[in-house]
Amino acid sequence: MALTADLTLLDGGRKLPLVEDFYTIQGEGYHSGKPAYFIRLGGCDVGCSWCDAKYTWNPKLYPPTEVETVVARAASCAAQAIVITGGEPLIYPLGELTARLRERGLEIFLETSGSHPFSGVFDWVCLSPKRKQPPLDEAFGRADELKVIVESEEDFAWAELNASRVGKRCMLYLQPEWSVAERMMPAIVEYAKAHPRWNISIQTHKYMHIP
Questions:
Q1: Could you write out the DSSP letters of every residue in 143-156?
Q2: What is the rounded distance in angstroms from the CA atom of residue 108 to the CA atom of residue 100?
Q3: Residue 171 in contact with residue 30, Cβ under 8 Å?
Q4: Cis peptide before 87, with omega less than 30 degrees from 0?
């Protein structure tokens, strides 16, 4: 499976493998409930079995799109918040995209596993670490929000390991993996009550039936 686009086709980040861009409501984490314009890029080399966006993994399905085209659509939207997600967006040089968005006065949020070096400038970084390909050291210092997906009670130790590496002001979230949410929620609730620095994130967009 192809995991990354041919970087020679991206013109230094002036083009990116766009899967989709759309206006919606952020459904997870600290900014849950906030109207935002999503920019979803294709390509991921982490490969979580429970990923709900597996269609993004192969970037060759998504020809490089001019950044200016995407920025124009984002800037014409009522929302002033932009979420860059994937796939794994940090596979690609994001400096050009974030610079053009900032020129339009837009707030930029990043969703990442932290498994690739950072590029671009962001107002908020949500780090969602994955066991298969853990975050690079620099990701922990960049995180404003740590969102750990919980499939089983073993993941609480993984959550604490990552929490020990982020900054003191980083918001901490436990989020049940959707297919086991009903089964795992009681344990997550009890864990958060016993360790109140943790908050609980729920995929509210799935209840709202929106992307």
A1: -SEEEEEESSTTHH
A2: 11
A3: yes
A4: yes
